[in-house]
Amino acid sequence: SGHVRFEAVHFGYDPDREILKGVDLDIPAGATVAVVGPSGAGKSTLARLMYRFYDVTGGRITIDGQDIRDVTQSSLRGSIGIVPQDTVLFNDTIGYNIAYGREGTTPDEIAVAARGAAIAGFIQSLPNGFETRVGERGLKLSGGEKQRVAIARTLVKNPPILILDEATSALDSRTEADIQATLEAIEHGRTTIVIAHRLSTVVHADRIIVLEAGRVAEQGTHAQLLRKN
Ligand code: ADP
Ligand code: ADP
């Protein structure tokens, strides 16, 4: 499961200004698809529509053939994990930041769950190890560590569909490469939509979609796009 389709999707935040102008996407279950394109093209907007922060104004988005407007919010948000561009951590522990929103789950329980889950590798890869640092306060972390915690917060629900909205683009290139490597392992087996600024960070994607001014300008593999441009 996790087959995502956009069918002639239109959207505008304001009625007199359309941002997405008829977007068609077909993302097979388990594939990693990257969305690149200039700033303002509508990439983050695509992600927000999938998570239903907003509803499409025309067309539809389906998951496994079902219109996402026909799915309850809790079911939709159980199957999709989104790492937004600008995650803000609470001034609380790493454990709390990861457990946040998951009622009845203490940082200790999360630590135990994390150990068993597929995300263990990711959390363990916090410098000096997650388990010794679970009680550390989020605001003291470096940018890269904060972003690992933000990603872990999303991964802890083990979503079959993962959206990464420029999840590493604010980091220095070495930290970005470190986190990127862990992410690529985690993307395996789940439908992943990676929004990226630079083509070089999405070489591993099965397909790259170039969005320009609210339309799909072209798509193909990394090699195909390099040949054309
Ligand atoms: P990208 O992710 O490709 O940089 P966005 O999806 O963030 O593009 O933005 C697409 C367009 O929508 C931009 O012109 C942006 O200014 C506008 N926009 C984004 N968010 C909002 C919002 N909450 N309200 C109104 N306009 C918005
Ligand atoms: P959870 O996955 O714990 O249920 P939410 O669904 O509330 O969390 O939000 C997921 C992420 O999306 C959070 O990191 C939140 O900051 C971010 N977010 C919430 N509302 C918006 C919005 N309108 N636009 C973009 N990002 C948002």
From TrEMBL:
ABC transporter domain: residues covered: 4-229
GO CC annotation: plasma membrane
Record has Transmembrane as a keyword: yes
Keywords: ATP-binding, Membrane, Nucleotide-binding, Transmembrane, Transmembrane helix, Transport
UniProt main location, coarse: membrane
Any one Gene Ontology BP term: intracellular iron ion homeostasis
Top-rank taxon, per record: Bacteria
GO molecular function annotation: ABC-type transporter activity; ATP binding; ATP hydrolysis activity
Protein name: ATP-binding cassette subfamily B protein
Boundaries of the shown chain within the full protein: 354 to 582 of 607
